[in-house]
């Protein structure tokens, strides 16, 4: 009788890395570094800190559809639930050709932190499909959305996990997701997603919510710096839903928006760009390219003489390479994770205040929370009520974080993580472990 072949188990020193390990400093690696920085401030709750470094659940799905030409295409889809200790998962769905599991894990973790930082009763989640939606027809986009929704149907729901718009997704995509989930469940479930059209249970004020939150937090931070918004020079990277709305609100408050960068070009005017006209132009052309203003290179954007800088595009934009060149006194992070940890250190050494993403762009999820509450009650508020509630929540959250930063002599990002991680881990400890 032949002897059994022994199973080779790699030694610990040479074991293949877990998906939880960041092999390089991508979004997940940045998040892990941020958690490490906050751990010394968590006191006895630090024994639970590993909870923050592991997603509760990560679902990877195949999204096959038939294209208009009759061929079958397959796309990778993800839905990650990072932490559900404080409530159901909450976070957007992005359609982008560079979406990865590592990125979605990080974005879901930042949603946990963001929701806790503004104290809305959600955990953190995020989703995405690895696809360039610009290559799809309207019908193909609908089929991708519906197939993806059906594949993640098992872990989403109004009391389980509530998706929302993110990069390259909008109210129409949310309508398709809501309809698909509702058809699968046998009843209309308006609360399964937020960011829906008004006619399907969407909330007034949702379109402008993230940009408005950027403006509210930026105004509070500027006030604490003794900076007047009126006459302040503002540079905005990204002219989508967040950047354009923030630019408009700063413009209306009397600031001069001197530079705007989108995916095609960078425009500059030291006297101030005409933001309302630029928004109208971009709504028709899909870009600011061709609008009046001096054209700068991508690198020159980071050197623009300004008081306030708003990165509102993708993550990892402010790096150790361009951070030394930034002229702003205040950075308001409209995007998720736009600043690397190394850049954070450089900005701190240069006394540039950073209002971090986890509070600065939390306006969107705050009004998503309002939408979810309104859907459950079937009682809807006026836009004025929504904006007033948003301003109050954002101001209170920022002031609490500012106080923690002053008390502990740390950056606003670390302070936001202290506040948020404390709330998450307190909930984890109170709930205990089951079974």
How would you explain this protein's 3D organization?
This protein is α/β, with parallel strands linked by helices. Among the domains are: 55-190, Rossmann fold; 207-360, Rossmann fold (3-Layer(aba) Sandwich), CATH 3.40.50.720. Helix content is 41%, strand content 16%. Strands 9-8-7-6-10-11-12 form a 7-stranded mixed beta sheet, sandwiched between helices. Strand 1 (57-66) and strand 2 (72-83) form a beta hairpin. The longest helix is centred in the last third of the chain and has 26 residues, at 383-408. The radius of gyration is 22 Å and the shape is globular. The mean pLDDT is 94.
Sequence-ordered SSE layout with sheet pairings:
Layout: H1 27-38, E1 57-66, E2 72-83, E3 89-96, H2 101-117, E4 124-130, H3 138-152, E5 161-165, H4 171-185, H5 206-225, E6 233-237, H6 241-252, E7 256-261, E8 266-268, H7 275-285, E9 294-296, H8 298-301, E10 308-311, E11 330-332, H9 341-349, E12 353-355, H10 357-360, H11 363-377, H12 383-408, H13 412-431
Parallel strand pairs: 3-4, 3-5, 6-7, 6-10, 10-11, 11-12
Antiparallel strand pairs: 1-2, 2-4, 7-8, 8-9
């Amino acid at each position: 009788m032949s002897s059994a072949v022994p199973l080779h188990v790699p030694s610990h020193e040479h074991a293949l890395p877990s998906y939880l390990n960041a092999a390089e400093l991508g979004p997940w690696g940045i998040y892990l570094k941020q958690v490490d920085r906050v751990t010394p401030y968590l006191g006895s709750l630090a024994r639970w800190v590993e909870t923050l470094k592991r997603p509760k659940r990560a679902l990877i799905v195949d999204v096959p559809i038939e294209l208009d030409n009759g061929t079958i295409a397959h796309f990778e889809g993800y839905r990650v639930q990072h932490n559900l200790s404080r409530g159901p998962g909450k976070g957007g769905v992005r359609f982008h050709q560079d979406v990865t599991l590592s990125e979605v894990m990080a974005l879901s973790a930042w949603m946990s932190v963001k929701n806790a930082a503004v104290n809305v009763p959600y955990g953190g989640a995020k989703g995405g499909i690895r696809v360039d939606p610009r290559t799809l027809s309207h019908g193909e986009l609908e089929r991708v959305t519906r197939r993806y929704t059906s594949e993640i149907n098992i872990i989403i729901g109004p009391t389980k996990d509530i998706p929302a718009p993110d990069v390259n997704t909008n109210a129409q995509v949310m309508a398709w997701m809501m309809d698909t989930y509702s058809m699968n469940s046998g009843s209309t479930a308006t609360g399964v997603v937020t960011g829906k059209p008004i006619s399907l249970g969407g909330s007034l004020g949702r379109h402008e919510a993230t940009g408005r939150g950027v403006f509210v937090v930026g105004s509070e931070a500027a006030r604490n710096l003794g900076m007047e918004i009126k006459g302040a020079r503002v540079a905005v990277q990204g002219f989508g839903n967040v950047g354009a709305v923030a630019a408009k609100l700063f413009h209306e408050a009397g600031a001069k928006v001197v530079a705007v960068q989108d995916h095609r070009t960078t425009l500059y005017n030291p006297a101030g760009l005409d933001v309302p006209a630029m928004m109208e132009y971009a709504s028709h052309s899909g870009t600011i390219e061709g609008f009046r203003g001096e054209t700068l290179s991508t690198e020159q954007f980071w050197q623009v003489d300004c008081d306030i800088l708003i990165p509102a595009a993708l993550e990892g934009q402010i790096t150790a390479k361009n951070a030394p060149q930034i002229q702003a006194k205040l950075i308001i992070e409209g995007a998720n994770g736009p600043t690397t940890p190394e850049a954070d250190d450089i900005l701190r050494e240069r006394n540039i205040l950073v209002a971090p993403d986890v509070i600065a762009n939390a306006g969107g999820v705050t009004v998503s929370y309002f939408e979810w509450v309104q859907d459950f009650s079937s009682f809807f508020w006026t836009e004025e009520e929504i904006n007033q509630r948003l301003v109050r929540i954002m101001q209170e959250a920022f002031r609490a974080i500012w106080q923690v930063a002053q008390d502990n002599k740390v950056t606003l990002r670390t302070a936001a993580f202290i506040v948020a991680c404390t709330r998450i881990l307190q909930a984890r400890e109170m709930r205990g472990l089951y079974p």
